[in-house]
Recover the amino acids of this structure.
């Protein structure tokens, strides 16, 4: 992709975004109308907005009784044309609001950048001034400045509005700079010897400026209201300068005679502010797409007769897709496996292999826009893809437990460990609080916590990562679930802690007879632990079989490559690692044929066209590879390429 | 002549409490580290999270100002004034390929910026150099106008390496440079580091929590625990017969495809750096600790030729002293 392409793709992104967000589009259109009206007010106005005609005061609008086409919106108490005054009012209102936003935003932005990056006494002083200003009542200030001057110009208004709002920009920008400053890319720039100015302008600035226009847009709408309000209170521009606020004030005075008059400025203010806010809303989402992530309720698949199974869990042809704006992403593709009572299934795969989505599909906790579209998940005779939401809620946490990589974010930060444990036990096991408390203490002892009483009283942040994960395991295992799903539970931990925790988890599941699905990117972790190993690649199962067979006699080239890279790096005295070439597949652009073919040293013509099916290669051992079904000649021919 | 020498380096961070930010204690992130590095060698630095290995790297580059101690580069003491020159000779590759690249800069600019910073003004020269660098780390030239998010983790780390090499440094500090990558990609990047070392005669400090990675890359390995180096030895010796009980525990905790070995189970967790234990910081978890360990801080001593350990009982046969017998590779090609 070349530079113009990158720019074109940015343009395309904006188009796609706007087409998907009708409200932003409507806001933009409306705002454009107001802006054009304001810009061309001198041309569009039929009259001079200040021109009085005392013979034609308080004329009604053209469509009402007694109105004339010469004054489409009628006239005001001094016989001035209302349409012209509305247009000029828009011009001044927008001019003052935009200029105030630029003044306040510009000042605040610079202050935020400087204080955030350099800190020190300047930061302390400026932020304290801002605090005082925020506490000071705005109206008082407006009266103090505007009320005393006999002739109020737009510049004075801009000054008051702009200078009182810089602190809001400054604070937000400052906090963004503070968080960016600590990131590795800024450190890297400093390590390269870049000057402070360069780090600030070239590295920090491009990643923080986006907040300013969003705040500016919100303030723009606010200023349109405030400007009218000040005019209404006779603190705005000096009469006879046209302003929506002064038209409103006139309208109030003659409300009994001309009830239509306040409606015009009222509507103008409403529509202008609405359009600005719609645009601001769209801008915020455009700059930070994470905010748009929605939540979609779970929809069970239509019921059908599940195939009976004596296993704890039988998954057949499970398929999970994510429907994204750019297309449909198949994260889990026809995955099948069975898990017996008390067995451990180890699932290994790299990032993007679909192993975590598989786990979330089983426990039915997929985030929007992901959904199970096909297959069965038969857990103790019930198909989890088809049970009702209420039934699923009853199973989750009770019969199926789950622990995640980041235990710290899985625990509620504002409740003590004891509270969370006791509540879980009371809810699931219907214990009274006394019994639940005793059981909670036992649960912590069970996962090897020596001083359970201290941990019960602690908040999650007071515990180390290893301790938090122990608490999570205690939480999940204390209700003796039939199935525990552990998704990379030790990846964030140090190796010595990992070793302790795995050993404990293994003892515990043996004691309680729990079946376990253990998900990891490190196949070596499964060597001690798993009964069955399942290797996933690009959402598919490429190999599954008893641990000993998969680890010692891997049949799929990807499994072989994975084992090679793991074992060699850990064996002392290795000369050179045999790496799998290339990168993991991009799930947005799946290839036809076998997904591993582009990286496979043995790929044949057929591999690029046909996705291989799973074939048996030994007792309970299956792999999906054309090498296993092809004739030896074809293999020999392909292996040399 | 030592290429890089670190003498009794310390970096303490104040712990502040209360409204006035009173200093109530110190985190001794790096607590008296001494190291010597020969030109062209790779020193591995291994330790668990919070042991101070990353702070040590940052302090060597003056990204953190040392509290005390001395850094000598080519036999000259480095001070704050030499920082710019130092950063031309020493470069870092960071851990996280997702946060270590400026997200809104194009690849060509990311790699070119170091050249511009150090005054290579001629754009034609810069373009030629960027082209050579991208080729060297295995990135296609026609993707130079893309942004970091358009690349995979492994490719991003290649960009980070190209950036570090742009100004021809002689020492590269790799701070957990492959930890965030998938295993199949890790091997590619480790091989790339080795190739580049050979081609450019680079010296490396290779920092990782993964003993396997460090062992593959390094001739000598230093093991850190709570701000101090507890063992320093040639790679093979460290693997075959570790002298410090912490090294033994670390070795036995590395996951392996082999059958279960006798694991050394450590008690408890690493101490808080604000409140390190008395004497030897490892003694509360150590399987062979004696009374003296809680009292006296052991010095890093040369117990056997070229082999240093900070343990009162370095030569004692502790449990699991032979836990790390060499293992062989698994899984052959079909």
């Amino acid at each position: 992709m070349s530079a113009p392409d990158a720019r074109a793709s940015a343009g395309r992104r904006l188009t796609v975004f706007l087409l998907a967000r009708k409200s932003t589009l409507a806001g933009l259109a409306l705002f454009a109308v107001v802006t054009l009206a304001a810009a061309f007010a001198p041309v569009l106005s039929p009259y001079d907005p200040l021109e009085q005609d005392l013979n034609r005061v308080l004329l009604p609008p053209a469509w009402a009784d007694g109105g004339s086409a010469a004054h489409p919106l009628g006239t005001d108490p001094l016989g001035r044309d209302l349409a012209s005054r509305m247009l000029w009012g828009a011009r001044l209102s927008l001019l003052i609001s935009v200029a105030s936003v630029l003044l306040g935003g510009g000042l605040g932005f610079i202050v935020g950048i400087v204080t955030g990056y350099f800190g020190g006494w300047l930061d302390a002083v400026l932020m304290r001034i801002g605090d005082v200003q925020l506490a000071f009542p705005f109206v008082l200030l407006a009266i103090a400045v505007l009320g005393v001057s006999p002739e109020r110009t737009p510049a004075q208004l801009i000054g008051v509005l702009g200078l009182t709002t810089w602190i809001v920009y400054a604070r937000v920008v400052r906090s963004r700079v503070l968080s960016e400053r600590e990131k590795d890319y800024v450190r890297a720039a400093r390590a390269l010897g870049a000057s402070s100015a360069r780090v600030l302008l070239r590295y920090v600035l491009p990643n923080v400026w986006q907040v300013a226009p969003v705040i500016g847009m919100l303030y723009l709408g606010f200023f349109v209201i405030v400007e009218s309000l000040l005019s209404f209170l006779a603190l705005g521009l000096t009469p006879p300068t046209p302003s929506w606020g002064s038209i409103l004030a006139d309208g109030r005075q003659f409300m009994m005679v001309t009830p239509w008059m306040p409606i015009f400025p009222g509507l103008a203010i409403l529509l202008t502010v609405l359009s600005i806010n719609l645009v601001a809303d769209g801008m915020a989402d455009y700059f930070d797409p994470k905010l748009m992530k929605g939540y979609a309720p779970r929809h069970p698949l239509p019921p059908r007769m599940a195939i009976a199974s004596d296993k704890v869990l039988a998954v057949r042809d499970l398929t999970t897709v994510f429907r994204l704006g750019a297309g449909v992403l198949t994260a889990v593709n026809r995955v099948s496996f069975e898990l017996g009572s008390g067995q451990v299934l180890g699932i290994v795969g790299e990032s993007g292999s679909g192993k975590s989505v598989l786990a979330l599909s089983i426990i039915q906790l997929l985030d929007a826009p992901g959904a199970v579209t096909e297959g069965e998940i038969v857990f103790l005779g019930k198909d989890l893809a088809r049970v009702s939401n209420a039934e699923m809620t009853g199973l989750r946490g009770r019969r199926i437990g789950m622990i995640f990589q980041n235990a710290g974010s899985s625990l509620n930060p504002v409740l003590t460990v004891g509270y969370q444990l006791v509540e879980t036990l009371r809810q699931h096991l219907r214990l009274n609080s006394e019994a639940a408390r005793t059981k909670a203490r036992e649960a912590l002892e069970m996962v090897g916590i020596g001083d359970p009483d201290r941990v019960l009283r602690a908040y999650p942040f007071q515990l180390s990562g290893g301790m938090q994960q122990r608490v999570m395991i205690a939480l999940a295992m204390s209700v003796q679930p039939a199935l525990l799903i552990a998704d990379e539970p030790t990846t964030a931990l140090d190796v010595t802690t990992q070793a302790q925790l795995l050993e404990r988890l293994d003892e515990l599941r043996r004691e309680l007879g729990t079946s376990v699905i253990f998900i990891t990117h490190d196949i070596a972790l499964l060597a001690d632990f798993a009964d069955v190993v399942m290797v996933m690649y690009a959402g598919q199962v490429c190999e599954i079989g008893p641990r000993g067979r998969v680890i010692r006699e891997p049949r799929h080239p990807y499994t072989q490559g994975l084992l090679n890279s793991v074992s060699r790096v850990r064996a002392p005295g290795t000369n050179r690692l045999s790496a799998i070439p290339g990168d993991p597949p991009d799930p947005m652009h799946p290839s036809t044929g076998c997904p591993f073919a582009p990286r496979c040293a043995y790929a044949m013509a057929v591999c690029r066209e046909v996705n291989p099916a799973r074939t048996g290669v030994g007792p309970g051992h299956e792999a999906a590879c054309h090498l296993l079904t092809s004739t030896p000649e074809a293999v020999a021919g392909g292996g040399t390429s | 002549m030592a290429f890089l020498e670190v003498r009794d380096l310390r970096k303490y961070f104040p712990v502040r409490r209360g409204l006035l930010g009173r200093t109530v204690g110190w985190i001794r992130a790096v607590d008296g580290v001494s190291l010597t590095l020969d030109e062209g060698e790779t020193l591995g630095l291994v330790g668990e999270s919070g042991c101070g290995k990353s702070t040590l790297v940052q302090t060597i580059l003056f990204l953190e100002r040392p509290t005390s101690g001395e850094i000598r580069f080519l036999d000259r003491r480095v001070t704050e004034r030499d920082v710019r020159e130092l950063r031309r000779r020493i470069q870092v590759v960071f851990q996280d390929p997702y946060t270590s690249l400026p997200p809104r800069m194009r690849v060509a600019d990311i790699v070119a910026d170091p050249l511009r910073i150090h005054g290579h003004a001629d754009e034609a020269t810069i373009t030629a150099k960027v082209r050579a660098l991208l080729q060297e780390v295995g990135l296609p030239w026609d993707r130079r106008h893309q942004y970091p998010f358009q690349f995979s983790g492994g490719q991003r780390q290649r960009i980070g390496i190209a950036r570090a090499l742009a100004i021809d440094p002689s020492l590269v500090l790799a701070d957990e440079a492959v930890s965030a990558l998938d295993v199949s990609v890790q091997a590619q990047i480790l091989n790339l580091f080795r190739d580049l070392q050979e081609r450019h005669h680079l010296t490396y400090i290779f920092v990782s929590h993964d003993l396997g990675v460090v062992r593959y890359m390094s001739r000598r390995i230093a093991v850190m625990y709570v701000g101090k180096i507890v063992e320093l030895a040639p790679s093979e010796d460290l693997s075959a017969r570790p002298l410090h009980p912490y090294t033994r525990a670390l070795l036995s905790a590395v996951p392996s495809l082999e059958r279960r070995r006798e694991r050394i189970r450590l008690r408890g967790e690493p101490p808080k750096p604000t409140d390190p234990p008395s004497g030897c910081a490892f003694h509360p978890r150590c399987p062979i600790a004696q009374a003296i360990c809680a009292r006296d801080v052991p010095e890093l001593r040369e117990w056997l030729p070229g082999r240093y350990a900070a343990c009162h009982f370095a030569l004692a046969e502790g449990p699991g002293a032979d836990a790390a017998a060499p293992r062989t590779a698994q899984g052959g090609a079909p």
Remarks:
- Chain A touches chain B through 74 residues (CB under 8 Å).
